[in-house]
Amino acid sequence: MFKEERTESHFDWSMLGNLAEGRPNLGDSMNVAVYRLMQFTLRDVLIQRMGVADADRVFYDAGREAGVQFYAHVLTKKGSFPDFVGDLQDALRKLNIGILRVEQADLERLRFTLTVAEDLDCSGLPVCGEQVCTYDEGFIHGLLSSHTGREFQVREVDCWASGDRVCRFEAHAL
């Protein structure tokens, strides 16, 4: 499942397993620090071995695939943009991922400014002057591409780690 060499994704939602069966006592929740421990140590090793640009590409691409899968398997309201956004807001809050707000939406040109407060990846990190939510950029790309059928460029412009109190993303269709 994970050890074969390949160049294309073979991810399948079933790889997440049966959490109710596998964790009957601990359930499906864990501390955010444990998630960040996995994410930031993985990122550190990737940067050591590949450099910052390639590590960022890996995180962005993984986020994009996660966004596609999340759209397909978690979201249920995929008709209108407002229904999609409302469903996404509910899911992100319910799963304790973050609090999504759409600041601007140009549906004609497919240009969006989104914020995420209490972001799983970075809220509460020390200020380091960097935007660190590369995975989230990809995740938003995957969600928007899945919903619109178009490819997107997503860029984080504000981040908790750069001194802001929300993560702000600008997205536009290519």
UniProtKB/TrEMBL annotation:
It comes from the Bacteria. Residues 111-173 form the 4-vinyl reductase 4VR domain. InterPro entries: NO_sig/Golgi_transp_ligand-bd (IPR024096), V4R (IPR004096). Coiled coil: none annotated. Pfam families: V4R. SUPFAM superfamilies: Ligand-binding domain in the NO signalling and Golgi transport. This is 4-vinyl reductase. The lineage of its organism: Bacteria, Pseudomonadati, Pseudomonadota, Gammaproteobacteria, Chromatiales.
